[in-house]
Amino acid sequence: MHLRKESIAQRENKMNYPASLNGRIMVTTDELMELLALSRRPAERIGEAAKAKRKIGRAVRWNVQRVQEYVYSTEDLE
């Protein structure tokens, strides 16, 4: 079995940037959790409040732009 070596740029890209900064418009629930630095249920609650949830067949994806807009708009309410 041959393992493909990642370039330094690929490794840095994975380490430094959340999924949304890689030009992705939809992310999985696990990626949403990473993006928000929250556990599953709080991340889902924010995504649902932002009306960012999309079901594609059985798969669930989250619209990154809606989540970001929601988070930035509710930031000032505290």
Task: Kindly describe this structure.
The protein is α+β, with helices and mostly antiparallel strands and 78 residues long. The protein has 4 helices and 3 strands; from the N terminus they run H-E-H-H-E-E-H. It has helices spanning 8-16, 29-36, 40-49, 64-74; strands at 26-27, 53-56, 59-63. Helix 2 crosses helix 3. It is globular. The termini are far apart. The mean pLDDT is 81.
What fraction, in percent, of the residue positions are helical?
A: 40-55%
Report how far apart the termini are. 53 Å
Q: Characterize the overall form.
A: globular
List unreliable stretches of 5+ residues.
none
Taking all Cα atoms into account, the compactness measure Rg is 15 Å
Strand order of the largest sheet: 1-3-2
Number of helices: 4
Q: What kind of sheet is the major sheet? A: 3 strands, antiparallel
Write a brief caption for the model.
By secondary structure, the protein is α+β, with helices and mostly antiparallel strands. The chain has 4 helices and 3 strands; from the N terminus they run αβααββα. It has helices spanning 8-16, 29-36, 40-49, 64-74; strands at 26-27, 53-56, 59-63.
List its salient traits:
single chain, 78 residues, alpha+beta, three-stranded antiparallel sheet, 4 helices, globular
SSE topology:
Elements: H1 8-16, E1 26-27, H2 29-36, H3 40-49, E2 53-56, E3 59-63, H4 64-74
Antiparallel strand pairs: 1-3, 2-3
